UniProtKB/TrEMBL annotation:
The keyword Iron does not apply. SUPFAM superfamilies: Ankyrin repeat. Gene3D superfamilies: Ankyrin repeat-containing domain. Residues 1-70 are annotated as: Disordered. InterPro entries: Ankyrin_rpt (IPR002110), Ankyrin_rpt-contain_sf (IPR036770), Dendritic_Spine_Reg/Scaffold (IPR050889). Signal peptide: none annotated. This is M-phase phosphoprotein 8.
Length: 443
């Protein structure tokens, strides 16, 4: 019996050691034998715990609690949240959120086991600051060069979205024709725009590529991007000076193509840059017709509200100029818009039906200078870019000798041809000319 007691004493751990062991392995002690973790489970648990988690900003005094980890149906790792999260949207937080979310979704491990980020191209970055990101957007992050590509290889690289191949080629000493076209007239800028390749498009624009080239059917790079709903691509092209009111051989504009596809955000951006809602296609259809074809009520409302806003601003500007001594009766043709950066000449055709006019009434042509960004504003005074107005090959005279905003207007029954010569302003981005004509009565 003494020997058995000695064996039991030897096998029985000390109270202090038992407590320490249970504290080091609390889960293992509480689990039944058949549920205990294997070494493989422990390694998997440590790897999952090492994954970065995204925490929303919260009060410093609040305790942060992790919710139970549940893997969603998409297989994404869970995102830890604070107990009382706030939505603090400052640039630094937004940038951090983007980087962490990218890290969660696009983590790749090198041979050394170091996590790096993949930004959709052949760039491996441990971290990216705001300054580095801006340099990347400007194509100034690295001055790299490599063996030159043939014109066909460069074209294939642009089409496939091979950013690094395009960048190495453009930084080489090879003199490329960046406006090269295929049989249909598709240029490099059109290929990048049609594929939504924003980084490549920025590189091409920086190297001087033309953004207003046309295919044989009249399609432009802006039309390709607008039709495929590439919002950022549309913004890049507009900032680079793309003509927003250019038309194909069928008379369609970028706005019509965006309306046809129901791309509301692209429609809104094009309207802010002076897209004309009342341009007629070859079959006499406006942007509203294509918006209705898409069955998108948001797009229809955007077009309708924009036309109503333009008409309201124009009529209020006229009344303010004449101090309510002029009564507007009805427009002769719908409002037309022209961006000064798209050329010095504006022309259009319109139909006119002669009707009996009240005594003391007449027709005037109003040419506004307008700004569409943020809030639509218009003026009929100050510096004027109008040089001449020609209707059916006859010069129209300004009402006031010191101002060329308001002209006498004498259309004939049937089809009339209007031509306006403006001051050339290729760098103007927000100044537009709004052409409006009204029958009126003086009080």
């Amino acid at each position: 019996s003494d020997e058995k007691e000695g064996e039991e004493t030897t096998a029985k751990p000390k109270p202090g050691e038992d407590t320490r062991e249970r504290r080091e392995r609390p889960e293992e002690a509480a689990r039944p034998g058949w549920e205990r973790r294997t070494p493989t489970d422990d390694r998997r648990k440590r790897r999952e715990d090492s994954e970065p988690r995204l925490f929303m900003a919260c009060d410093d005094n609040q305790d942060v609690q992790d919710p139970p980890e549940v893997v969603d149906k998409s297989g994404m790792f869970p995102i830890g949240r604070s107990a009382r999260a706030r939505s603090l949207l400052c640039p630094d937080i937004m940038l951090m959120t983007y980087q962490l979310m990218t890290h969660l979704c696009n983590v790749c491990c090198t041979e050394k086991g170091q996590a790096t980020l993949s930004l959709g191209m052949d760039l491996n970055l441990d971290w990216m600051t705001l300054d580095d990101f801006q340099k990347h957007l400007n194509g100034e992050d690295e001055i790299l060069s490599g063996p030159p590509l043939s014109p066909s290889e460069l074209r294939d690289a642009v089409k496939s979205g091979d950013y690094m191949a395009v960048k190495l080629a453009l930084n080489s000493k090879e003199d490329y024709n960046l406006d090269q076209e295929d049989i249909s007239g598709m240029s490099l800028s059109m290929l990048a725009a049609a594929g939504g390749q924003d980084d490549i498009l920025r590189l091409l624009i920086k190297k001087g590529v033309r953004v207003n080239g046309r295919q044989k059917n009249g399609t432009t790079a802006l039309m390709h991007a607008a039709e495929k709903n590439f919002l950022t691509t549309v913004a890049i092209l507009l900032e680079a000076g793309s003509y927003v009111n250019a038309q194909t051989q069928g008379g369609e504009t970028a706005l019509m193509k965006a309306c046809k596809r129901g791309n509301a955000d692209v429609v809104r951006l094009l309207l802010e840059y002076g897209a004309d809602c009342n341009i007629l296609s070859k079959h006499k259809n406006t942007a509203m017709y294509f918006a209705k074809l898409s069955n998108n009520l948001v797009v229809c409302d955007l077009i309708k509200d924009h036309i109503n806003m333009l008409s309201s601003v124009a009529e209020d500007t006229i009344r303010a100029y004449f101090e309510s001594r002029l009564v507007l009766l009805e427009p002769v043709f719908p409002l037309a818009c022209h961006r000064l950066c798209e050329g010095p000449d504006f022309s259009m055709e319109f139909g006119f039906k002669s009707q009996p006019q009240p005594e003391g009434s007449g027709i005037l042509l109003f040419i506004f200078h307008a700004n569409f960004l943020n809030e639509i504003t218009a003026r009929l005074c100050g510096p004027c870019s109008v040089h001449a107005v020609v209707l059916n090959d006859k010069f129209q005279l300004p009402i006031f000798l010191d101002s060329h905003f308001i002209y006498s207007f004498s259309p004939v029954p049937g089809i009339n041809k209007l031509f306006i010569r403006l001051t050339e302003a290729p760098t103007a981005k927000v100044t537009h000319t709004v052409i409006h004509t009204h029958t009126h009565t003086l009080l």
